[in-house]
Specification:
3 helices; alpha+beta
């Protein structure tokens, strides 16, 4: 199933995100491609990296990551 779901990510080099994602990433012209099994679990992981990673595609994953980041802002008194 992981082979059917892949995310194109832009990851800042030298960050925690780059170290962890590099273990399972394949290089791509615009960043790296990372296979994943569960959209929600992967969105949780990516959101935990904050600004270290940006989801280029799929849009459904990007939307889930943004939703988590916005919820974190609200929870901690920030504005979206």
């Amino acid at each position: 199933m992981a082979d059917r779901q892949r995310a194109l990510l832009e990851v800042h080099p030298g960050t925690e995100a780059s170290l962890r994602l590099a273990r399972r990433a394949l290089p791509a012209p615009q960043g790296v491609v990372v296979p994943y099994v569960d959209l929600h679990v992967f969105a949780d992981e990516l959101a935990s990296y904050g600004p270290e990673v940006r989801v280029v595609e799929p849009s459904s994953l990007r939307d889930e990551v943004i939703r988590r980041l916005e919820a974190t802002l609200v929870l901690h008194g920030g504005a979206a």
